[in-house]
Amino acid sequence: MKAKIPKLVGLTGGIGSGKSAVAECFADLGVPVVDTDVIAHELTAGGGAAMPAIVDAFGESVRGADGALDRAVMRALVFGDPACRQRLEAILHPMIEHESLRRVAAANAPYVMLAVPLLFESGGYLPLLWRSLVVDCREELQIERVMRRSGLDEAAVRAIMAAQCTREQRNARADDIIDNNGTISAMRLQVERKHRYYHAILDKSGCLS
Ligand code: ADP
Questions:
Q1: Domain ranges of the chain
Q2: Does the pLDDT at position 209 exceed 80?
Q3: CA distance 27 to 195
Q4: pLDDT digit string, tens, across residues 74-95
Q5: What's this model's pTM, rounded to 2 decimal places?
Q6: 130: CA distance to ligand 1 center in Å?
Q7: Residue 36, CB half-sphere, CA atoms under 13 Å: how many?
Q8: Is 3.40.190.10 the CATH number for 7-102+119-202?
Q9: Residue whose CA is closest, atom 11 of ligand 1?
Q10: If you average pLDDT over residues 91-105, what whole number do you get?
């Protein structure tokens, strides 16, 4: 029998909203997680498949001593230079998409979480989705969590948030929302509920048989 392609749930949320934490909870329930950020890092690691094309386009200075993309150098190059950013994205985005979909197709599960931080901003994955799932939390909490995690200061976190869609825009476009304003265990309960809900609608539509 031909294997079924899993349904895709696009997982997104602002920086620090708790996407990785939510993805981990789904993974604990046995749901495969394909994370476009993780794939981007793999592609630009030492020996990563995107490195030859990136070095070709931007020169040896973007390759760090360990062979991986030197993110600080690359950030400085693309900062304020949209053409440069577009050139980098034209190399990376098709490779990320190709690898993401390869992993989705290989997953043996009724549905897969596809984590895409800029799901609504970039829009490319939207036509492939079964549902979108937004991790929501208040802006002050986002800032506090990112500062604690990364050591960035408030201005730096706000600058990243300013390049993303607003909480209201994101929530308005979501099929489903996880409220991550509370504790990790409160979030975990919601993930378990969503997991049961996704299974129930897949079952009803005959996708589990
Ligand atoms: P994202 O992937 O959306 O950027 P993360 O999942 O990495 O966000 O979460 C950001 C930080 O906040 C991490 O250090 C994570 O452990 C922490 N965090 C996430 N959810 C909660 C929560 N409900 N309570 C407390 N800390 C949380």
A1: 7-102+119-202
A2: no
A3: 11
A4: 999 998 899 999 999 999 999 9
A5: 0.94
A6: 25
A7: 20
A8: no
A9: 145
A10: 97
